[in-house]
Design goal:
The protein is mainly α and 158 residues long. It folds into 2 domains: 54 residues, no CATH class; 99 residues, ACP-like (Non-ribosomal Peptide Synthetase Peptidyl Carrier Protein, Chain A, Orthogonal Bundle). It is built from 8 helices and no strands. The longest helix is centred in the last third of the chain and has 24 residues. The protein is extended and about 65 Å long.
Length: 158
């Protein structure tokens, strides 16, 4: 038992390291964080194993995740995930209205920011008010992505 405790203490973070990690997490915009009390080399080796483990999912989990996005296209699913996280809803359809689900202008700003991160497109806050349903906003994002690709194609031809 003592060796287990010693091992645990050796592999744990100190109070000051915990406070530092907590402050770093608060200042980041990541939804999931791994805190690992080891060197970067150890973390690199361990993270490969962790990601192998995490990527193996059960059929029950896959079915549950699939039902959350039932009826949504591949382009609507990432947007749905953004809405679900910000609005705290569990399921969405393409006809769901952002504002009727509890969205506000402040949340709309966060949605725009996350859309820009996820899709690398520029939308205005007005787009959320104009394209209020999941399906319509996803279509707007698709059109912006296509326009960006066409612009890149035309500039590379010159």
């Amino acid at each position: 038992m003592d060796s287990w405790k010693e091992n645990s203490l050796k592999n744990s973070i100190s109070n000051s390291e915990g406070v530092k990690a907590f402050n770093l997490i608060l200042n980041e915009k990541y939804s999931q964080v791994i805190i690992y009390p080891a060197s970067e080399a150890d973390l690199s080796r361990s993270s490969k194993e962790l990601f192998k483990t995490v990527s193996i999912s059960s059929p029950e989990v896959d079915a549950d995740i699939q039902s959350d996005f039932e009826g949504l296209t591949d382009s609507e699913k990432p947007l749905a995930l953004i809405w679900m996280n910000l609005l705290g809803v569990e399921r969405l359809s393409k006809k769901d209205n952002f504002f009727k689900l509890g969205g506000s202008s402040l949340l709309a700003i966060q949605v725009i920011s996350r859309i820009q991160e996820a899709f690398a497109v520029t939308l205005s806050i007005g787009d959320i008010f104009k394209f209020t349903t999941l399906g319509k906003l996803a279509s707007k994002i698709e059109k912006e992505i296509i326009a960006d690709i066409e612009e890149l194609d035309s500039s590379s031809d010159n």
